[in-house]
């Protein structure tokens, strides 16, 4: 076997062990919030979707959403059908499986402007 093949196999083995160890420890990665549509300007009456996700298998996870530090939703996806200024604020999410809880996501700030969606 060539030296580069042996090195490749060793690297893959280490990566597989690290992934398995991370999952065995029960560590849940920090979730991320994505917004659809993407953009910093949100218009009144616009439909907005926020998705809380982690970079690996999400089966069996519970989702916790916070708006301005107040719990308000428990689904992976949060949809605002008609945005208005009452939806302004800082949104964060957290993921839980059994007794393991992730850290809070980085905040996503929504700011609805007074104009109607174009």
Automatic annotation (TrEMBL):
MF GO annotations: transmembrane signaling receptor activity
Keywords: Disulfide bond, Signal
Signal peptide feature range: 1-24
GO cellular component term, pick one: external side of plasma membrane
UniProt keyword annotation of Disulfide bond present: yes
Gene: LOC116218793
Boundaries of every Ig-like domain copy: 31-111
SMART domains to which the protein is assigned, alphabetical: IG (SM00409)
Family annotation (PROSITE patterns): IG_LIKE
GO biological process assignments: cell surface receptor signaling pathway; immune response
Name this polypeptide is given: Leukocyte immunoglobulin-like receptor subfamily A member 2
Source organism (scientific name): Clupea harengus
InterPro entries per record: Ig-like_dom, Ig-like_dom_sf, Ig-like_fold, Ig_Fc_receptor, Ig_sub
